[in-house]
Amino acid sequence: MKILVLGAGAFGTALGQILTENGHEVKYYDPILGVSLEECLDGAEILVLVAPSFCLPDLLPKLPRDLPLVVATKGILDTSMFEGFDDVMVLSGPAFAEDLKAHKSATLTATDERIGKLFGTDYLNFDFTDDVKGVLLCGALKNVYALLAGLMKLERDTPEYEENLAIFAEEMRALLAANGGDANTVNLACGVGDLRLTCGLPSRNYEFGFVLADNPHEKPEKTVEGLSALRKIAEGAIVVPDTALRLRELIERSKEWA
Fold first, then answer.
1. Annotated catalytic, 142?
2. What is the value of pTM for the model shown?
3. Is the C or the N end of the chain the one with fewer CB within 10 Å?
4. 1-12 pLDDT, tens per residue?
5. Which domains does the chain have, with CATH numbers?
6. pLDDT (tens digit, 0 to 9) for every residue of the chain, 258 residues total?
7. What's the rounded Cα separation, in Å, for the pair 116 and 114?
């Protein structure tokens, strides 16, 4: 099968490697490099979206609506951007690009069994749900809470870490329920699994939160998805229930940052 991977960064090439190893013909398009999208789309049967979330408002209108679209980009709060696409699936979960390339075992969440067939290997397992919105929200929210975990300087394998992780997960459940997702999706790999992976090193979101704790005027040198998502949430991108106290406190604290 001919597959176009939209996004040629570390995670995009890691997914592309799996597809190639599974016998598929893979091409890459990187919106940041500005090569011809039309040429890359020629002959494509499936699209795999792994481009950074800030690229999507410009990229999505240029994509054909009739091809199956596997969304692996994290940091998406506005799920309405996929309206008009005939066939949208989501792949998410706790896996760093280098671990996938090294064939380390992982469990991911998928919203369609076709994803399991495309990416199926002896080192990847999948849990399945039809909650597209919930999986996408988990992919954005876990980065925000990872930023908070760094800001709080939480350390793995401590009672404080476990206590706060449970609070973060409960707030995520409330956030999904308030925004049209299924609260139970947080129990899957895309929720608590990815939250645990991201709330600590080498997560870029956790690391930058750690920096902000000592220097609230620091600016990131690379994209920090949690910071971008937090700004959108503060602007009203999603409903934040009253019970999400940690997130509400983080929004207030972020007003002090540069």
1. yes
2. 0.94
3. C
4. 999 999 999 999
5. 2-128 (3.40.50.720), 138-254 (1.10.1040.10)
6. 999 999 999 999 999 999 999 999 999 998 877 678 999 999 999 999 999 999 999 999 999 999 999 999 999 999 999 999 999 999 999 999 999 999 999 999 999 999 999 999 999 999 999 999 999 999 999 999 999 999 999 999 999 999 999 999 999 999 999 999 999 999 999 999 999 999 999 999 999 999 999 999 999 888 889 999 999 999 999 999 999 999 999 999 998 886
7. 5
